[in-house]
Amino acid sequence: MNRRKFIKNSSAGLALASLPAWLTACSFTEERPNIIFIMSDDHATQAISAYGSKINKTPNIDRLAKEGMIFKNCFCTNSICSPSRAAILTGKFSHKNGVMDNKQSFDGSQMTYPKLLRENGYQTAMIGKWHLKSEPTGFDYYSILPGQGDYFDPEFIEMGETNKHKGYVTDLITDKSIEWLKNRDKEKPFLLISQHKAPHRKWFPDEKHAKLYENETISEPETFNDDYSTRSDAARLQEMTIAKHLTVADVKKPYPDGLSGQSLKEWKYQRYIKDYLRCVASLDDNVGRLINYLDETGLRENTIIIYTSDQGFFLGEHGWFDKRFMYEESLRMPFIVSYPGIIEKGSENENLVQNIDFAETLLDFANIEIPASMQGKSLRKLLTGKNPDDWRDAVYYHYYAFPASHSVRKHYGIRTKRYKLIHFYEDLDQWELFDLDNDPNELNNLYNDKSYANVISVLKTQLADLQKQYEVDKY
Ligand SMILES: [Ca+2]
Predict the structure, then answer these.
(1) Phi and psi (nearest 5°) for 420?
(2) How far, in Å, from the CA of 349 to the mean position of ligand 1?
(3) Residue 445's pLDDT is what?
(4) What pLDDT, on a 0 to 100 scale, did the predictor assign at position 473?
(5) If you measure from the C-alpha of residue 144 to the centroid of ligand 1, how many angstroms do you get, rounded to a whole number?
(6) pLDDT for 52
(7) How far apart are CA 460 and CA 421, in angstroms?
(8) pLDDT averages per 10-residue partition of the chain, 475 residues
(9) What spacing in Å lies between the alpha carbon of 330 and ligand 1's midpoint?
């Protein structure tokens, strides 16, 4: 039995968890897991075969799921790029970490989980898309894309110095990640954050994948022609339709003569979804490259690998691209965790979890005390096969970025296992209720159905309780 298994299987594990951080850092450094946190940008679960994709295959991401645990109900607290990244680093909702939309700069002086790992003996690196405006803090090394970054020959800011690199961004981020692993201090455990630009708009595939799906027709989602008839005005006022708002620049080709209305919308969807899936194919290859490196170097055994994306995305559902709404495709994040010997292979979890739980989980596995100011919960028990009776029965969501691109109105809401209640506020003041058991596609807003009056009343109380618990100002 190796040391780590001994600690896990004996009462020594409990004793270790209660030791002060400095002592665990000094005495047990070699037993603590390494962590590789791989995050892509806008990769929806509908485009991951481990989540049942009907339109593509992701064999390498699936491999992580087969060798670890897949979370079926992992949700974003605010479905947009910078806010999700800030929530992950801090374990706090947007109103607490200060990044409510993509305009705000992350206050790097605040506590983050990489800082705590570093203070406790980990070496830490951040490679790839950062998208938080301020300089990364809490890392021994960083090499980040400026802003959104470019797909081809991108610039990287490496420890303050900007240089252009030749190649495709997804390959380069993986090259840099492997290079850092090769050159790290092998005496210390590590945290490597490897964050991809792909498959973010405008979805430029590399040459290797450029012809994938060329002679195929990708199926359209069930809700492709949604008319929003029962929904609030927010569903009609948005500006993210494939029909009207996806541009010539997005599809990278002039619209064919003679196409208009529905036939043009269908043509644009094919152009959009194929480029998106091509970017995902390269991403999946590169996830495989990184896992292979860990396998080849014997690092896999003691390394937690996470695959996630900063939020979900609409892949034609409701006729849309982009994210932001609290609807399922945008709200749900992929979240897959592998840790050989500790997490049961091929396991699934349906508990309601959120991106504010990631920091606490990683600190917990590293036996570092979780700051009381963090608002999420460690998933360690869930990941080790225990199902706590007192796990949360609802999640809170809040989107603030209006006016902004795509014109999605401000809203907040609550999602339980069965229901979702959303309040679009400020200029609208309209509510939506969905019964997800009977209406998983969220087509029937039941807010004005009198038979749901009790359900709505209970949900509103739960929502108010969550707002109180998370110290949200009233809206
Ligand atoms: Ca994103």
Answers:
(1) -135, 125
(2) 24
(3) 98
(4) 84
(5) 16
(6) 98
(7) 8
(8) 39 47 45 96 98 98 98 98 98 98 97 98 98 98 98 98 98 98 97 98 98 97 98 98 98 97 98 98 98 97 97 98 98 98 97 98 98 98 93 98 97 98 96 98 98 98 98 82
(9) 10
Query: 352 C-alpha to center of ligand 1: Å?
Result: 21
Tell me if 327 sits within 8 A of 315, measured CB to CB: no
Q: Which residues contact 118 (CB under 8 A, 6 or more apart)?
A: 124, 138, 139, 140, 191
Integer Cα distance of 299 and 302 in angstroms: 6
* Packing angle, helices 59-66 and 261-296, rounded to 10: 50
Distance 309 CA to ligand 1 centre (A): 7
d(CA 51, CA 333): 11
Domains of the chain with CATH codes: 34-206+269-392 (3.40.720.10)
Residue 305's alpha-carbon distances to 62, 141, 318, 336, 443, in angstroms, are: 13, 19, 33, 8, 36
- Nearby residues of 436 by Cβ (< 8 Å), 6 or more positions away: 328, 415, 417, 418, 419, 420, 442
From ligand 1's centre to the CA of 376, what distance in Å? 21
What is the Å distance from ligand 1's center to 39 Cα? 10
Six token digits for residue 282: 């390269």
Instruction: Of 84, 92, 130, 125, give the one whose Cα is nearest residue 111.
Output: 92
The CA 148 to ligand 1 mean position distance, Å, reads 10
